[in-house]
Amino acid sequence: MRLWALAGLYVGGVIGAGFASGQELVVFFVDYGSKGLIGIFAAAVLLCLGTVLILDFCARYAVTSYAQIFDCLHPRLSRAFDLLYSAFLLIGTSVMLAGIGALASTPPWGLLLRLGTSLLILFALAAGAQGVTVLSGWLAPILVLILSVLASHRLIQYGLALPRGGSFRAFEAAILYGSYNLGFALAVLAAVHKELKTAAHRWKLAIVANSTLAVCMVLLYLALGTLSKSQLKEAFPLVHLVADLGPVAYASYRFMLWGAMFSTAVAHSLALVQRLSQFQGSSWGTKSLFAIGASLGLSYFGFSTLIRIAYPILGLAGLWIMALLIHERRG
User: Fold this and answer.
1) What is the number of domains present in the chain?
2) Residue 331 lies in a domain
3) HSE-up of 150 (CA within 13 Å, CB side)?
């Protein structure tokens, strides 16, 4: 059960706004035609191997936060990387809160959604790492189930339509996708690796979590292949999977979209607060309040603006971190 909960925390951290909206899958996989399907498998393999690599490194050096990973990898620049990565986690939570606000039909409702979700994140953080893990262990499977059911229903209704053509640049996109997600997962894995006592447990977590993601990604990729080019260019292409299924299906999708952003925000916030807790001077609750308050303020810079600036940089940073981990492992 503990393994499933930890896998849920990892999966919940990956299934954010971009994944649940379908936008990530379109940009990184569907746009590359049939080669995009191969790209999904390549990304899943990279995520699996990267997860084990990070967990093994954390276990070997007994780290308790992402800051200590940077200390071990590059002592001279560790403070700069620590500060930059903390900022990315803060922005990551801000992106999720901005996306949650965008779900509302009016600005006042958007404010209420942001504030209400921020309070829920604070309640989750108050339970500590164990409480967040248990919450994610329940929420992540529900999100994956809703997405998989919607995709399967679309395929039963419209049939299988594999995209034609494609480009082998799908492999470049898959590597960037895997590196970007491993960049964010680094903090979560550093925070929970102590729960995985053996190499076998670490491999089980990596295989269970990333296989679950891969199956869901394949189903969504195939379902998105049934949409028109104009529908794929929209901000929330997956909404077309529920367009003709009635209000219950539409409400389920909106709950799933909110839950995906909430679970990612919780995962990022947990890693950031655990890092802040290593500094003396204030309580866990005070540091949680600071992290969520700052994220809430930053969320008003806008959903698309934050994604456009921060996420490509983190993808390259994640690739660089993976290269350092591989070099350290071989050395």
Assistant:
1) 1
2) no
3) 33
DSSP 8-state symbol, 197: -
Q: Which residues of the chain fall below pLDDT 70?
A: 1, 163-165, 302-315, 331
Q: Is residue 38 part of a domain?
A: yes
**Whole-number Cα distances in Å, 201 to 2, 44, 182:** 11, 18, 19
Is 191 a domain residue? yes
Torsion angle of alpha carbons 8, 45, 177, 148, nearest 10°?
Answer: -50
CB 53 within 8 A of CB 326: yes
124 domain residue, yes or no? yes
CA atoms of 121 and 132, how far apart (whole Å):
9
Q: Which pLDDT tens digit goes with each residue over 73-91?
A: 878 878 888 887 888 788 8
Structure tokens at 100: 């949650």
Determine which helix (DSSP H) or strand (DSSP E) holds 6, and give its type and residue range: helix 2-14
The three-state secondary structure class of 236 is coil
The CA angle 230-257-108, to the nearest 5 degrees, is: 95
Which residues span the domain enclosing 309? Answer: 2-326
In what helix (H) or strand (E) does residue 263 lie, and over which residues does it extend?
A: helix 247-276
Q: What is the CATH number of the domain that holds 10?
A: 1.20.1740.10
**Encoded amino acid at 327, one letter:** H
3 state DSSP class of 33? strand
Cα–Cα nearest to 12, from 324, 292, 259: 259
Q: Please spell the DSSP secondary structure of 301-312, one letter per residue.
A: G-HHHHHHHHHH
Q: How far does the chain reach from its first CA to its final CA, in angstroms?
A: 36
Q: Is 161 helix (H, G, I), strand (E, B) or coil?
A: coil
Say which amino acid occupies 150. L
Buried b (16+ CB within 10 A) or exposed e, 87-96: ebbbbbbbbb
pLDDT in tens, 111-160: 899 999 999 999 989 887 777 777 877 888 888 888 999 899 899 988 87
pTM of the model: 0.84
